[in-house]
Amino acid sequence: MLFRCNYLALVGHCGPRAKYPPNKVMIWDDLKKIAVIEMEFSSTVRSVKLRRDRIVVALETMVKVYTFTQTPQQLHVFETYPNPKGLCVLCPSSTNSLLAFPGQNAGQVEIVDLGNTEKGSTTVAAHETSLSCISMNLQGTLLATASEKGTLIRIFETFNGTMVNELRRGSHAALIYCINFNHDSSLLCVSSDHGTIHIFAVDDHKKNRQSSLGVSFLPKYFSSKWSFTKFQVAGNAPCLCAFGSSDPHSVIVVCGDGSYHKFGFDPQGNCTREIYANFLEIGNHDPNAKD
């Protein structure tokens, strides 16, 4: 979806009732209730990102950038490491046109300024294994990454690719579904297939938990920065998380089973679930739900 306007990017799929194939992108005008732009590719579309002047399409091994016009014109093609999840993030800021996507080697991220592609890209060696999630803050100054192992979240400056923070989600492998910064980039929330939402402090590291055994001769694990709070989401459905826009001490969680959760937390890390709803009625009813 393009911010809060009436344009959405829709991608076809392979199901028996599919109206469009998985190699086709439709830009849907929800005001007119019609597809105003149709784009067809030679392979399956993995994801689509929009901004007011660009359409970015991620395929299995490349990312293509187009003008957001009635007849989109191809501007750039960037080759990537195999990218079945379609990882790609486009800075939403009107004053920053950064695009981040997997590089040509496992664990790498390429950062390109679409407003000045002649200066080349910034390569970030984020992880040793393949990426599972990438995210950029609203200002486009910070990039957060997770690998397929899912134990560490790393934060880099987009300007030069320098790592400025390393956060530990846990000690056991996990599939990271989502990473999001809050509005001023002071906090970070992370969801995974363990059913937990972790909240980290990005600026004030003293808020994050650390092992009491963090001495120099012990492995790096013991000096890790752990989330200062976390909470559990019932069920095993994939979920997305983001900070509330009106309440800075809230996190909104939307899950694949149709459930909606709003959690509140205080600076000390105390958490409560404030709202629960289920919109699809395909999951089990939560007896602890607050109407």
What would your notes on this structure say?
With 291 residues, the protein is an all-beta fold. Helix content is 0%, strand content 46%. The chain has strands at residues 7-11, 24-29, 34-40, 47-51, 54-58, 62-67, 74-79, 89-90, 98-102, 108-113, 122-125, 131-136, 142-147, 152-157, 163-168, 176-181, 187-192, 196-201, 209-210, 225-226, 229-232, 239-243, 250-255, 259-265, 271-278. The chain has a six-stranded mixed sheet with strand order 12-13-14-15-20-19, with no helix packed on it. A hairpin with a 3-residue loop joins strand 5 (54-58) and strand 6. The two termini are 28 Å apart.
Spell out the helices and strands N to C.
EEEEEEEEEEEEEEEEEEEEEEEEE
- Given the C-alpha coordinates, what overall shape results? globular
Q: Could you tell me the strand content as a percent range?
A: over 45%
Unreliable spans are 212-219
Q: What would the average pLDDT be, to the nearest integer?
A: 89
Helix- and strand-based class?
Answer: mainly beta
Strand order of the largest sheet: 12-13-14-15-20-19
Number of strands: 25
Major beta sheet summary: 6 strands, mixed
- The whole-angstrom Rg is 20 Å
The number of helical elements comes to: 0
Gap between N and C termini: 28 Å
Q: Indicate the percent of residues in helices.
A: under 10%
